[in-house]
Write a structure and sequence with these properties.
Elements (H helix, E strand, L loop, with lengths): L1 H54 L6 H12 L8 E8 L19 E6 L4 E3 L20 E11 L8 E11 L12
Antiparallel strand pairs: 1-2, 1-4, 2-3, 4-5
Helix pairs in contact: 1-2
């Protein structure tokens, strides 16, 4: 009888040691799954937005339509956590905003904020549709979308928050010269 009691006692001690580790592992998996869900949602939203902006070269509503597309495609992300949303003119040599070598700021862009129901421009656009070069012979200028959002952890055991930064750049869809592809 005493050996069976010892085995039961050993099993209880083992369970007491292993159970918290197992629970921590499960919570960690859940935390990172939620992070990856936000990261993927942001990536898909940015790609949809830049495709919209590219297809609407020289259309006055190109930036707002791109922001609306980001709102529609980014259903998985919490829009209240969006810190930056830019539709910008990209450098011809890299994916950063024109005249910059980072995402510290953009000068030739349209910046948006979330007002609780949709993205609205912060100020007047500094990259007007009428100034876009979308000629196929050009080559066309490049448009980019930058999204920065804060992902807060659910339990804050593994981390408290992570900033997700996504950007994508694509050339403007060429339009015929007869339709006014240059400013």
């Amino acid at each position: 009888m005493t050996s069976k009691r010892r085995e039961r006692g050993a099993a209880a001690v083992e369970a007491a040691l292993v159970t918290p580790l197992f629970i921590m592992l499960i919570i960690g998996i859940m935390e990172f799954a939620l992070f990856f869900m936000d990261n993927l949602g942001a990536s898909n939203a940015v790609k949809a937005g830049v495709r919209m902006a590219s297809a609407e070269a020289r259309n006055a509503n190109y930036a707002q339509d791109a922001a609306d597309r980001i709102q529609a495609e980014g259903g998985a992300i919490n829009k209240n956590k969006v810190q930056q949303l830019w539709v910008y003119k990209a450098n011809p040599t890299n994916d950063f905003p024109l005249g910059s070598s980072s995402f510290a700021d953009c000068t030739v862009c349209v910046k948006f904020t979330w007002n609780g129901s949709r993205f609205v421009p912060q100020s007047s656009p500094t990259w007007l549709a009428s100034s876009m070069n979308a000629c196929a012979s050009g080559p066309p200028e490049r448009v980019g979308v930058y999204l920065e959002l804060k992902h807060d952890a659910l339990t804050r055991i593994a981390f408290s928050s992570i900033t997700i930064r996504e950007s994508t750049v694509i050339r403007l869809e060429p339009i015929p010269v007869t339709n006014g592809c240059k400013p």
